[in-house]
What we know:
mainly alpha; Growth Hormone, Chain: A; 3 domains; two-stranded antiparallel sheet; 4 strands; about 65% helix
Amino acid sequence: xxxxxxxxxxxxxxxAVAKSDVSALFPYxxxxxxxxxxxxxxxxxxxxASFIGIIIIYIRYRIVIDYSRDYDGVRTLNFRSLFLGYIAxxxxxxxxxxxxxxxxxxxxxxxxxxxxxxxxYAIIHCxxxxxMGVAGNILLVRQVCAILSACALVSCVSAAAFxxxxxxxxxxxxxxxxxxxxxxxxxxxxxxFSEWIMGTAFLMFFMTFHREFKPxxxxxxxxxIEGPHHAELKPDxxxxxxxxxxxxxxxxxxxxxxxxxxxxxxxTHRPWRNWTAFFLMGMINNLGYVIVNAAAKSIADSFxxxxxxxxxPWANVAFxxxxxxxxxxxxxxxxxxxxxxxxxxxxxxxxxxxxxxxxAPSFGLALAAxxxxxxxxxxxxxxxxxxxxxxxxxxxxxxxxxxxxAGIAGTLTxxxxxxxxxxxxxxxxxxxxxxxxxxxxxxxVLVPPSKLASTLSESSNxxxxxxxxxxxxAIVPSASSTSTASSASTSSAGTKRKPSRRxxxxxxxxxxxxxxxxxxxxxxxxxxxADADEPLAPGRDRGASHTSYSSTTATGILPGASAxxxxxxxxxxxxxxxxxxxxAQYWRCTKMVWFVSLQLLLVYVFEYVISGGAAxxxxxxxxxDRDNFWYANSYAILGFCYQVGVFISRSSLQVVxxxxxxxxxxxxxxxxxxxxxxxxxxxxxxxxxxxxxIFVGLLGGASxxxxxxxxxxxxxxxxxxxxxxxNLVAFGITIGITLGCxxxxxxxNTFLSNA
Length: 755
């Protein structure tokens, strides 16, 4: 079906554009097949695709029946989705038979059946896949299905809403010739673009069934009929009814072979919600930051400050130190309430920064607003990376993938809006609603970590109400250590006595008042994903560390303390060690991560000089004067290529890992030399610079995701210091970007001033 529709859309679009029946820029799909001869191809292909779609929907329906016997409610959803899928396929036939130029009302009804029922069908099967195990339906496929379903739904609403505001069709020759002077042109392009995105999402959604359908076979059984009486063929309502009626000896004349379920593992629930949440938060967290960087040249030119392009990315990171330091002040508070407050604060930074930038009357105030936008990106990055330590370390890939995709989405958004003639002000204001997605991902999609004390108690068979169970920063001796310490303290007095549990509990209660009680969080909603979505207390999957847990009791260490430094007092309580000074803790953690932090710092210096400064100087004077879209928008296009590379490499952690991150640093340094030399002598054509910029992004994104994965999984880093170490590495990013932007300003006003 995907091949048939893709061929249909491509052929009809090419013919319609060649005949000047439609505009070349995102016409409506149905407009491309409204006039002959392409209308004949359009109708034929849609009918064939509808027939294939009915078969696919029925096969999927039968597969779900075979795997849904142990899942309440799935059979009902499955039947409803079958009904909706058939309606959508019938609507596709209506769209092909009734062109919009002939019977517009019927055509729109058919389109509503296709897109509306199709969106609901996709969402229902995402829910079904999550609630049960289906052969071939791995976690990645379910995540892709969820993303495609969300894209289809958002695009459907967007296409319908902007179609309402586009107004009447332009008059004149052709069915849909729109240009920038036509009233409602912007709404028209947004609506048509959304329709193409929706159609692509549907095609890719059905392609994800490939893994499920691959092991299926079609068996045709031929039975000879003897005697005058022919057996009556009855449609089989279910597989079980069919077998019961036939005595288990015969199958229907044509029946889909059932997949072998003998070795099928029990269904498992995967943390798809957490993966999606961190991806969305990473994307929105960096979206405003990326759009500002993509618009750097335009912002500087709008205030006649073309030699201060480097000031824009510099301002985007100038307050990164303040932002990361502000997050450092919250690090002692590990409750979900604390992280929720920081997320709200970050959302406020986003709103204030974008609105102030949209209405900035001068370049100085624009830079101040950009500082706030960049501050939100740095602050949000530190918050979420610190929050990730309570989850499985692999989820850092979803966050980094989201930040990488923000580069593509942000750059494409700016290029598209620039092409549509929208101003920078309009672009920044349109970006504001995306902040709601950021908040929704944290508060409604993400499964929060369970109470740390409760998590530890489950692993150590200690009741949460046990008075010896303390906050995560406290320490509770194991049974053997308590006994040893008690014996030692009593023998020193010359008298052996049994330790009093009442006194020890009282003493612990008094000492507990000195500790943070932020770990007393509300238990998370498991939502059916209790096994896989249950977050880890820091250190539960990190291997050896300074924090240890006995087989019977939970043990946590105060920052800077070691297990040997905590002794029992004569009353059977705990003698807490003196707290480590903040400077000593920072210095100790700095020594643990200085090397990887330096690699990330240097990579960011090199790539920001390339993408932010060198990319703006690659064109000759003759190239700049060309009336060509590629040359006129070369800076933004090179920025898009850079973001494509970043997205690919930041999403690659589960495929390839680079423990030797210093190799990436050396390669990025060589890239910088090549780009600066080209700015001076201009010997590399623009078409060759595009893949070179993708390579720059690949190295930068790979360094980012691998460095943070190393920090999250390093067994030599105590778990109570892990969030601080993450923030110190993040400081390296801010320092690197700041140095890179400073070098851009120096280069632009020295040997590259006339380049």
